[in-house]
Structures are given as C-alpha cells and as structure tokens.
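ok trying again, last paste got cut off:
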Amino acid sequence: MTSAPGSSTADGLARRLRRDLDGEARFDDYTRHLYSRDASMYAITPLGVAFPRHAEDVRAAVAAAAEHGVSVTARGAGTSLAGQTVGAGLVLDLSRHMHRIVDLDPRTRTAVVEPGAVQDQLNRAAAAHGLMFGPDTSTSNRATIGGMIGNNSAGSGSLRHGMTVDHVRALDVVLSDATCARLAPVTESERARRAGPSTLEGRIHRDLPRLLAANSRTIAEDFPAFWRRACGYRLDRLADSSPFDPAQLLVGSEGTLALTTRADVALVPAPARTVIAVGHFTSVDAAVAATEDALACDPATVELLDRTILELSRQKIAYASLSALLEGDPGALLFVAFTGDDADELRGRLDALTALWARHGHGYHTLHALTPDRQAALLKVRKAGLGLLMAAGEGTRRPLAFVEDTAVHPSQLAAYTRRFRAVLDRHGLTAGFYGHCSVGCLHIRPFVDLADPAQVRTLRAVAEEIKDLVGEFGGVNSSEHGDGLARSEFNREIFGPRLYEAMREVKRLFDPDNRFNPGKIVDAPAMTDHLRDAALAPAAPLRTRLSFPVVDGMRGAADRCMNIGACRKTGTGTMCPSYMATREEHDSTRGRAGALVKALSSPDPRHALGDERLHEVLDLCLMCKACKSECPLGVDMATLKAEALSHRHDLYGVPARSRLFAGARTLNRLGSATAPLSNLPGRIPLLRTLLDRTLGITPHRPLPVFARGNLVRWAQRRRLTAHPAPRGQLTFLADSFTTYTEPGIGRAAVELLEHCGWEVRLESGGCCGRAALSKGLVDAAKEQSRTLAHRIAASSPPGSPVVGCEPSCLMTLRDEHLALHPGDPVVTDLAGRVRQVEDLLLEAVADGRLRLRADSWPAGRRLLHHGHCHQKAEVGTAATVALLGAVPGTEVVEPDAGCCGMAGSFGYESEHYALSMTVGADRLFPAVRAEPDDTVIVATGTSCRQQILHGTGRRAWHPLEVVRAAL
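nice, full thing came through this time. structure:
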C-alpha cells in the first residue's frame, strides 16, 4: 500500500499535505527514521510524517492518504511497547500541536481534551478542583490521552479506577473515509436516525448492532474471563453497554478503526492523603507470596520492584535517594499504597498490614512512608522501572517487551510467577520483574539479543509458551500494553476462530480499505517481523576522539536509547529543555539519539556525521547533560554532540564564532587585562550590531563585564599573608569566569576555605577544556585538559581535594576528562579528587570550624536556589541547599525550574537567543518573579545568574557569596 521515498506517490502525497494542512509535513530521511520506532522492539520506516494542528488537518491528511493509496498510523508520545505506533505509510504526530485541554468542568467531573494532551498536564489542571484522571500510568509525564485511549491504558491505580475505557464518555473522530463523526452513547431512536444515511457513520450505526447480535453467544463465551484486558476489540464492552455506545469499541483499538481528534473523559476525586508501606523481601517469589495479605487490607495499589531495578537506581544520581531509605539489601520490594481522608485511619491500615505480614512471616522489614517528601523517592524509582531496567542492556542484548504484559488473578500470581520463571530458566534467559501485583500483572522482560537469529527463535518459543501458560491460568496475554506487532499474531488462537472472525468484521466495517494502522489486532504479521536490531546494519569502523566504552562505540552509545520517551516530559525536571520549548520530536534526546544512530549506521559514518540535516537536529541541544542523569538509560547527548561537531569541523572547518567561544579563557583574560576599555563594545549599539552581523552574537543580551581586579591579581597581592592550615592543602580551580568576570565569588570561596583550616593553592594556569568541548573542538579540549590535569598532579599533594565554584568547569574534571583521556592514571586520579566547596564547608559546619552569624544580612531570609544543570547531573544540589540552610534562620527553597536556557555561549548566539529565553520563561523566570522582593535569589552557575538577571531583573548571588556574608 505504500511506496518508496522519492516515488511519485511520496512526492504527490507530500505536495498534497503541504497544500491542504495548516500543520507541517516532512518526508526527509531523518524524520522518517525518527518515526520508524517507538518504545518497542520493532522498526518500520514510514513514507512520511504529518503534524496536524486541528481536526480538519487530520481529516485532510486521511483524505490525501486515501487518494494516494497510503496507510495512516496515528501516534502520541510514541511510547508504545508492542509496536502499535510504527507503520509503513503516513504517520500522524498528534502530540506536536493538538494538546489542548479544551474544557474542564469540576461540577460534572469531566474534561474535553485533544489527543496530544499529556496525562500529567490534565492532572495538573484537574488538581485545582481536587480531581484527577483515574488511570495512572508510570509514563504519566509524557503519555498522551489519545495514546491511552488507543491502548486502553491502566497503570498502578486500576484496582480502584479500572482502565481508560472506564473513563471515556465520547470521542470525536475521523473515520477511514475522511469524514468526521462523534461517537457517544445514543438512545435507540437516535441510533436508528444515525443509521439512516448511506455514509460510513451510517453503516457503523446500522451494521454494528447486527454484528453484535449475530455474535452474542460467541462474545459471551469466548472472551477471556479476566477483567483487565488490553487485547482484541472490546466487543464485550459494547455488547454490555446500554445505551449503545460505539466509543467503547474504539478504546483499545490501537488506531485501527478511527482516529480520535477530541475526547470527553471522566475525572475522579483525587485522594486527600496517601501513605505507603514498603515491604522488604529476599526474593521476587517472597514478595509475590505476600500480595494476598496486602490485598486483604484494601489498598489502592500494590507494586513490585525487583533487585535488578533497585541496583540500577543506585547508580543514577536522579534515583539514588531511594537507597538511603531501604533496610539491608532486599531482593524485591512491595509498595502498598493506601488512600483516604483520615490520617489516623490510614496509619492504622499500615500498622495492620505490617502486623499481618509479620504474623505470616512475609518479609524482613516494612518501611512506612507517611509524607509526600518521603514518598517521592519511592515513587520516582517505581515510575522509572522500565527505563532503569532497560539500562541493564548491553549492546543489542536488551530486556525486551514481548511477554511483559500478561496478567492472572492475584490469587494465582505466586504459582504463575514460578511457572513463568521455569520457562525462562529452561531457555537460559534472565529477566527483570516489576509491575502491579494488585491486579496480577507483572512486567517481566527477558534479556534477548535480536541481532542473533538463534535468540530470535528463542524469543518466539518463549512467547508461545507464555501465551499458553497464561491461558492455562485463565489470564490475559496483554493487560495494559496492547497487542501491536508483538501479540496480534496470537489473537486468533487466544480468542478462538469465531470471535476472531467477528473482530475482523469490525475492522472491515470501520476500515474497509485497511487504511488505518494495518497489521495490528487482526491480520497481523509474524511477531518476529520488523525487528529493530535485526534490521540495523553493522556499525562501520569510526575513530572517535572521545571514549565511548560500550559495544559498538559511539553508535552503541546513541543506540542505548530505547525510545521510552522520558525526554518528552514537560513541566518537570531538566531534560530536555529544547523539547519543552518546541515540542518537536527531533529536539528531544530520543530524537537526537535516533538521528545519530541513522548517521552512524551509514557505510561512511564519518561523512554522515557532517550531514546538514543531522546538525539541524543536534543544533538546539543545550548540552545541559540532564539526559545523563534523568534519562534512565543514561544517554549522554552532550558528549555525543561534541564528538559529532568535531567530525563536521573536519569536513567543513571551524566557524569563527565557535573558535571565539572555545577560547573563552583567553578572551576573558584579555578582557580583564584591558578593562574597563574592553567593556565598551558591549555598551555601543553599533558595535553590537556589527557583532551580530559578523559573528552571530545577539545584540539583545548584555555581554559579561570584565573585572580589572581579577582573582589572580587579588591572590598575588595577599601571598605574604599567612593562614593556619591544619586541614592541609587543596587546589582551587580558578576557572575562566570566577577569575575574570566574577572574582568576588572566588574571593569568597578562598576566604571561607582558609577560615575552615585549608591552605588554598590557586590553579589559574589554563582552561579545563569545557568551552572548546562545547563547540566541538575536541583536540583543543584534549590538550587543555591533559595540561591542566598533569599540572595539578605535579603541584598538589597526592589525594588532596580539587575544588571550584563554577560547576560546568569543575564537573568537566570528573566527567569529560575521563572521556578525553581513557586510561590515563593522572586524569583518573584527578577525577576522584574533585569536591564541591560546599562539601568541605558542610564538614566544617558539622565539626564546629565554621560558625555562621545570626546577625548577618542573609540570616532569617528566604533563599531561592537554582542549581546548575551540570551540577544536578553529576552530583546533585543537596550539599548546596544544606549549606545555605546552615545560615541561621534561612528558609531555602529549590523550585523545579529546569534549565535556565543560557547554556554558556548558546544564549549569546543570535539564532538561539529566542529559544534560550523561552526555556527560561518556562519555569525559572516565573518562579523568580513570584518571590517577594526580600527573597535572596541564589544560583551556582555563571550562565544561570546572567540569565536570571536578564530575564527577571533580579540579581542572583552565588551560594558562597551568601555564606561568606554570614561569616
């Protein structure tokens, strides 16, 4: 049904879409590659991708596709785990523009949303009225309501709130003949009226009841009995509905029957309070065995995590806080949540569960998490379970979703789990376990290498055995993740020939030309067709400047991305700031990783890394490094971009502006030496215009002010002053900014450290390489970093601390230096010696060497702290917040404000200025503006402080300046 790119079909369709749609249409190879994947093990390259802005665009796209004989696959966040959202025809991205909450009525507890609205977005709007959307998926920060409807998603709260089908009230859709319809409950007389016209909508209202009547016995007898189903067409729901409600049939239909353009959904009361019991068990089997006792206490959720995921969480700074709460080394945890209004009653239920487990010998410890703060670390890891498990993959051996969604009655879960594990053991497979014990659903993902044909055969054998096993236990093959390409093949056997044929009739009724998402639910290909890793060409040899110590090197580092879409979240965290601003797939970490995989899979990857379209995709990466910590798989896009830029420079040379910014230390040193004259160009409009036209440096942003009295000169003047140093010597990294543009921060740091008993040696002889690396001048960064590392090693006591004030520079010593010089013992040793100044000062506070005054100007003030992205990614901000809290009487707040948007030189570049301000305006600027005038704004990064001043007019202090003022 589809044609090759460049064919008359593709060209004609592209022209038609660009003419008829208000939204965009893209048919370039990189866009097609990015949309060839979802979060499953499958890949199908589409003919093209369209981005509708409204329902009329969707209708026009369907009409254009029909005219050209092309299939249509709709998608939201593209996080489907079974291959539902990949297809060979035209892909419609309904998340890019169609994401409005059209209406929210707290009186009727309903909302009207477009399909691209995200679950957390809806919940934030509903929370103001004490409401929420009932289904609670672990991907709630990027899962679209349209995708949840297509999938019939459920999540951890399904014990109380059921599945998405239980909350859909009406759907506005585009049918396969490119007409629009509204599907909702109708009286018999209204159904008969709608059945009159000889239109597709008329045939649906006329023939669907006949189909139900003809197959009533089959529907009653052949559907699996277990209630939590996300497989097949839900004819049972339609048969049971009164009045007639065809919208029920569309939920879970995976976009194969009609395309949703607007949904009326029901909301439920949000719980006033939640408490959680965390049972510690020696094994998964022991945890599963404790589930029935948990269910006897009437919980809202019962969730499982195994040791594999717990160990992986300890390795990621974004999730490591869980470890501090746990007792011992559990083989599995059960999270049992209770919700309600009465705090005493909820605590009583926790106590009752704890006593019941103790009486029956279940587990060895039960943690009670009573407050939202204490629960946050628990829930964060639980929601990231899939991504953390994926991080355990190596090369093409990954934990795959193909038997991960079965469910049985909870009373049979223990026996079922043992039999499931026996199947895996027989085939020599290991797996990670997590999921929803409360409803008998475990997400078990075996590690399989799809590049190995023998492993592909094993995958199929296991899928068939588990399908039979779940049938033996009276369960379902898919309980919330859908059929897609992974399970649709088995539907004839699961439902039986009569019911399966009825489902095929449904498909023919709604979609007689098989236009919508063919090959899903019915008439599917083999589950082993279209496998992602099997189709990927072997990586061609490529010599890289940076070290990528994974299988397949740089491509393997990019291909760690399994498209789970954590980088598509909005309104929380830091990753990915450019996606949050543009909502473009290619501006997400996932999109950039996919683009790099495409380039690095070409026969000549060195040349492909210079591709113009590739660098359009990479261009808006701020290199904030949030993906290194917030992406559960640890895709490090900052390092990948630096390497890619270096190869582009090899082919096309280094732009003058990149050389200028890469030489930031030299520029700042010269600016300081010639100040105040060097500060004049920043104040003369004509010169700013000239800089804009010649170098692309925006005239809209103030330039840094060079300080004549820099940190080096200050240090030289005070060399004769002796300070007692019982703590020994440390090295202070005099970075390019603390030294030449903000020396007051460096002075505050040195004075504080000396007060705490340290002899401070200033290292001011060179650059760490951060600036060069950010512009792709990797060879220059190598030389600078090697020189710096060896100079520090030669001039400082072994093992002594190396500290600094600018996180981007200091963290380069412990991260990028290792990638620049793998195996260099000097560099490795230096990375291990890096400490934050805050760490050392906190130690001094703890042992009484540092006492801060209650009569200082910061004392008793409210302090708003914004952490630097590199600091958050590498070590976190806990030490900084704790140190600020040591100032007597302070209230320290740290809003979830994401990235400031400045990103070093990025915010000075003319073509990036507007985006940098959009990123700042997302959450940081509003958080600062909301503070009273007497709140002290604090930020660790020089870029952050510049951006806050420019975007809000408020001065931001470095934390050490605040602490020094309290000395």
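cool. Residues 938 and 959 are 6 Å apart (CA to CA). The mean pLDDT is 95.
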